[in-house]
Amino acid sequence: MVPLVCHHGVMDLTPYVDNLRRELAVAAEASGDEARVLAERLSAPLESAVRLTLLNVLSAAMGDVTRELAPGSVDVRLRGLDPEFVVTPPPVPEPVREEREAVAPVVSAPPAGEADDGTMVRINLRLPAHLKGRAESAAAAEGLSVNAWLVRAVSTSLDGGGRASASGRSRDSGGRGFTGWVR
To answer: What is the top-level taxon of the source organism (predicted)?
Structure first.
C-alpha cells in the first residue's frame, strides 16, 4: 500500500501511478516475455487514465466529506497533474462586539413617582448600518460614547423633549437624572 502523499494541499499521484505500473510489470513477468513487452507498452498510455480515475475517486470521496462538513466543504482542483484539496471550513459565528456595535446597555430615567434604584438593564438595539453610523458620528461630535449618547437620546425623548446635558442631567426635567455605563 502506498501512503498518502500530500504537500500543502497538493497530493502527488505519481507514487500511486508508479505502484500500479510495478504491479502490472510483476503480473506480466509471470506470463512471459510477450506479456511483459505488452505491459511496458501499455504503461505509458495508461498513466493519464489512471490519474483521471484517481481524481474521480478523490472527488467522490471529498463529496462525502463535504456532506459531513456542511456548510463547510472540501473541493478537489487539478494543479498540473496532481489534485489540490481546498478546504473551506464552516463559518464561525462572530463574537458579539459590544464596544463597536450599536447594541448597548441602556438605563433610562425612572417614570414620575418612581425612585431610581440604580438597577441597570441591557437591551439589544438593532439599527440599520447608516443610522448606526450617524449615531456614532453624533456621539463623537459631542465627545460621548455611543452608549451614553443613546441613553441621553432615549431619556430626552421620554422626558418630553427636554435636552439632557453631557453630564447626564436633564435640563428641562425638573432635576431628575439618569445614569448609564459604557464598556
So the answer is: Bacteria
Main-chain phi, psi angles of 7, to 5 degrees: -120, 120
The answer for residues whose C-beta is within 8 angstroms of residue 120's C-beta and 6 or more apart is 105, 107, 180, 181
Q: How confident is the model at residue 156 (pLDDT cuts 50, 70, 90)?
A: confident
Cα atoms found within 13 Å of the Cα of residue 30, Cβ hemisphere only? 5
- CA 69 to the chain's CA centroid: 14
Prediction pTM value: 0.42
- Of 94, 101, 90, nearest to 123 by C-alpha is 101
